[in-house]
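Margin note from the TA: students keep mixing up input and output lines. Inputs are the sequences; the output is the structure of the whole complex. Example:
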Amino acid sequence: MRGLMKLFSAIYALAIYGFIFLPVVVLVVFSLQSTAFPIPPFTGPSTRWYEAVMNDPRLTSALFNSLAVAIISSVVAVALGFVSAWGFARFVLPGSAVMRGLITLPLTVSYLIIGMGLLVIFNMIGLPKNLIAAGIGHVVINLPLCFAIIYSQMGDHQINIERAARDLGATEWNVLWLVTLPILWPAIFASLFLSMTFSWDEFVISFLLTRFDTTLPVEIWNLLRSGLNPKTNAVGSLVFAVSVVAAIVLELILLRRRPA
Amino acid sequence: MRGLMKLFSAIYALAIYGFIFLPVVVLVVFSLQSTAFPIPPFTGPSTRWYEAVMNDPRLTSALFNSLAVAIISSVVAVALGFVSAWGFARFVLPGSAVMRGLITLPLTVSYLIIGMGLLVIFNMIGLPKNLIAAGIGHVVINLPLCFAIIYSQMGDHQINIERAARDLGATEWNVLWLVTLPILWPAIFASLFLSMTFSWDEFVISFLLTRFDTTLPVEIWNLLRSGLNPKTNAVGSLVFAVSVVAAIVLELILLRRRPA
Amino acid sequence: MTEALVEMKNISHSFGRAGVLHDVSLTINPGSYTVLLGPSGSGKTTLLSILGGFLVPRKGSVLIRGHNCTMMPPAKRPTTTVFQDYALFPHMSVGNNVGFGLRMKGVVKSERDRLAHEALVIVGLPEAFKKKPHQLSGGQRQRVALARALVVKPAVLLLDEPLGALDLKLRRQMQDELKIIQKQVGTAFVHVTHDQEEAMALADHCVVMNQGRIEDEGTPERVYAKPATRFSATFMGESTIIPGEVTSVTSTAISVNTVFGSFPIIATAEEGAKVTLAIRPEHMRLIRDSRSITFGSAEVTAVVFQGSFKRVVAASKTLSGPTFIAKIPATHEVAVGDTVTPCCHIENLIMLTK
Amino acid sequence: MTEALVEMKNISHSFGRAGVLHDVSLTINPGSYTVLLGPSGSGKTTLLSILGGFLVPRKGSVLIRGHNCTMMPPAKRPTTTVFQDYALFPHMSVGNNVGFGLRMKGVVKSERDRLAHEALVIVGLPEAFKKKPHQLSGGQRQRVALARALVVKPAVLLLDEPLGALDLKLRRQMQDELKIIQKQVGTAFVHVTHDQEEAMALADHCVVMNQGRIEDEGTPERVYAKPATRFSATFMGESTIIPGEVTSVTSTAISVNTVFGSFPIIATAEEGAKVTLAIRPEHMRLIRDSRSITFGSAEVTAVVFQGSFKRVVAASKTLSGPTFIAKIPATHEVAVGDTVTPCCHIENLIMLTK
């Protein structure tokens, strides 16, 4: 009975993991195909298509664009999110529960809608479609997330720790620099990584707000128009690999926090 | 000094909220434009473009498709997520920390990559592009989220409560039905709502995996090709309104949980 | 002699490689209040879990009313447990929480509401029937958990550090009520705690555990007055401990040699045996009278006022002498740094062989 | 008479509309150990926060060493606080935690490491210097928090329920150490607690608070032996309470009439005044001797064994009579249901006018 239960659990687990991971596994496997069509039989492994990606100047410049947008927009989003969270935790404002709700509300709004809204505004104020516009879009989508993560770590205990620092003669600047920031460091780092990942992966807003220079997901989209081929799989696998590394780093940070 | 600080905070708060909400506010305002161009001056309010949306059979059928995909895929994702979370909480398996990490890893993988992977698989097994394919895609992206939310509520206290029920003579079925499900109800409901919102908002996977019958975001995209106009704003506002309602319901559920 | 309600025979258990119970046997009589007292890691909670059916022991057997229940799951055992975190069902009213066990037995709604109400009257909370658990205070939740476990009329009620989450004042109050409720319902209670005052106040039968073994068991009065081992002499109340050696043995008494000289004790022991003399703080005096035996002189290191008495700690001035602990009347003047003469009456020397 | 170190004058405070402190004045002497004792909601923590500078009172002033500090922020006051949750800096080593206050004063690294080490020696934790707070047990963190607050040599050290998070055994042990450390460093300590045993054990000066007012203050011995109010007679130790009325007054004594008859008491009061007689449990006896005054007869409702004594609760058989609480020797045989004659010596009657 117990054995049967275990067997059943194992089959279920296998099915679920297969279900979730099959898409990316297939993508990665067929990016190593040596022939021109990403359909069985598997003819690889070959790095031919990765070389093709690396030799495509549009793709390599898009890769650098993506990295630049991800890093800059994330730093801005984290900085703004930290200041907001700090403000909320320090000052009891009238209606602050509602305000807190409002600031995290955009987390559930479609990127497509946010992108459209930004497009309308940028049209109005005359900001051209470019990477800066896309970066602003990424700040808009990531700021609420950064706020939520950092704010969640600012509990009563954190406030007492800051009181203790002040009690021992620390100025506000000392408190921020020697106590608040170092303690919130894991949360800040986590939100930075998560923002970078989301920005790196983001397609719709980048598509709507850029024109000539663009990000990697948009270039992949352009490639996809000519149908699936091992080159799209290869560049997709690269994007995936970066995301996975970021996600693993993130989980390690969160795991390391536990004992503290 | 303190007054200046407050003024500064207020300006900062206003700027941040403006920054986050301006896109959608502009979108909604100019959907009420009575003339044909979504640029100032504001000529409304008028419901003209909402009527146009309602009279467009492509958009109304896409709306129903979106609802159907959102509801069905979310129910499936929640059911699978619940069973997975329950399994993890009940059975201590070798390497279960790693397995837990794996199951939530896809949360940070680009929808574009998942969509491409699914496209490759569906090509291989001959599943045509349609709403069912898109629904499967939405289950793949939402299952990790449902798992994470429900699992996070299954702490030691929950396990002790189930032990108490068993101790009082409850069968496994009774425990599940009378204790586990009712207690986890807020988490289940939250993950259902969040899944529905994400599915409702999702564009890339739906675009890649559907052909003739499609979902609302994809139809909006098609409309956008002919440029921004109040009709796109109107349908965008509708999508936004549904997301906001879902988000508010969600926050209310989470707030109501607090006292318990 | 009444027949035993529960017999736990030669129980051994381990988690991974660490043995947590070593050949423990325990008998519980009907209607008794048994307290398992020990520090954390002594195996007391593991023993309770084995009795409740949440753990199957590696070795040994559990008999309840003569039936072997060793492998029986908790649902089928005539035991119920009150958990330390109460484990109330948060989504059910107090009435439905208490009636849950009856519902599982198929008792109809009106009957189980009546019985749940009765159980709530016993624990003094009938007005909470319609409330939700989160509307109650910690002490009230504790009572609901107790009512829920009592209403199914278990053969044995198990309490896992039931007062551990309450503050000191509430704890002493709930402890008195627990005892009254137990005598009223007549069910056998088995209660785990690390608080010796709680154990002394509640137990009919006190079981002192340490490192997976039972060190001593009996009435709290007996365990306190005549502890079997050095561990129980220091864990169940404090003691001044003086090591010694048996030097001469007669048919009625022995003589124990210590750093303070030889003392005659009415006991039996082998000549040359290493023994320990223990003196309870209320028997330790700082002013000698004609019947006193004395233990050199000592310097007072701490005086703590405790209302009805003062607790005095004094370091012996004799080489390798003990730390003396005495409870003396509050009116007795003594200060840190004073030199005192610790003494006691000979009949208050407790001899420990382990 | 030494000059006062701290003077809190006519402090009133409220949160929203609820008044939490009503015209409280308190003087703290150099080198003293002051304990603020009261139930939750008595305003003791608010008073400490006002002294520490975390709250500015609505009315009244705080003078430290004669300087008015009422509006001064915590950073500039010569006070440091040990928080209940310790509030250690989790990312710093223990040594850097302890040295933090010195760093803020601009003391160089080598010097502050030396002083931090010294402070850790005082609290008995020098080996923890390089550890991180999460590697320490609760009691050890408590000591680090104490060292961190002591190292800056404050005029007054404030402790906010410092032992509240520790279990009972550790609590009693840390309490003894706190007292020793305070005497060693000579700094004035102000300690907030709701535990009366802790207050009696630690205080030089015990301040009993209730509902935002000081009910009684003085040495714990005085407060225990001669409580000023009915509240302090029942909160600081238990008492049997017998209401009465003053019937006759002479120059040296009065007569108090109760349901058990009239008793002569050496005190002054107005004729006709309503007063309360209190008897401490250790003075309440169940066997009369020649000097006893008796209080009718009573039925024993609870007997709790406590090791060195038994705590007996008995209900008076007299109409509207009190509940008697007595601590009697453990050897004295008494059981629930017995009829006893509560009595005490006349000099142990405590008369309360409030």
